[in-house]
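Structure (tokenized):
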């Protein structure tokens, strides 16, 4: 008999990871795989994030805010032009002030604060998935 997943809500969900820091990408890759997500691709700048979204249409994108060339907020805007449904979680060491306001204004589904661990990341993904599911349910008529 198979052991039930510790994270059933995220198990087998598809994800793309985009961060310009190799160590952060490697850490995220390990955490997300351990949680049972399927990693479809990885990139290191906003242009690559948009390309990977168009190519794979993942359910979730983990997207760093501060990257060279096209930053994560610019990539978020381009991705949102194509889909309101994909869950985009912004990654940032600076989770106060302008980055948070800009991520919310850009319709990010959540923010993953650095430093992070498995519990923080999975909790943020689960919150975003739950909110997305709840927003798609029809409103009861009174």
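Design, position by position:
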């Amino acid at each position: 008999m198979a052991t039930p997943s510790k994270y059933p809500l995220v198990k087998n969900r598809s994800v793309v990871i985009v961060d310009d820091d190799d160590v952060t990408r490697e850490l995220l890759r390990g955490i997300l795989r351990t949680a049972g997500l399927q990693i479809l691709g990885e990139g290191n700048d906003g242009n690559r994030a948009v390309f990977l979204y168009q190519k794979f249409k993942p359910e979730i994108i983990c997207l760093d805010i501060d990257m060279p060339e096209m930053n994560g907020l610019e990539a978020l805007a381009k991705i949102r032009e194509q889909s309101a449904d994909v869950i985009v979680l912004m990654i940032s060491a600076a989770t106060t002030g302008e980055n948070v306001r800009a991520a919310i204004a850009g319709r990010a589904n959540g923010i993953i604060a650095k430093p992070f661990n498995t519990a923080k990341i999975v909790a943020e993904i689960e919150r975003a998935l739950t909110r997305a599911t709840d927003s798609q349910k029809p409103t009861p008529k009174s």
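Reviewer-requested clarification: The chain has one domain: 14-132. The longest helix spans residues 118-136.
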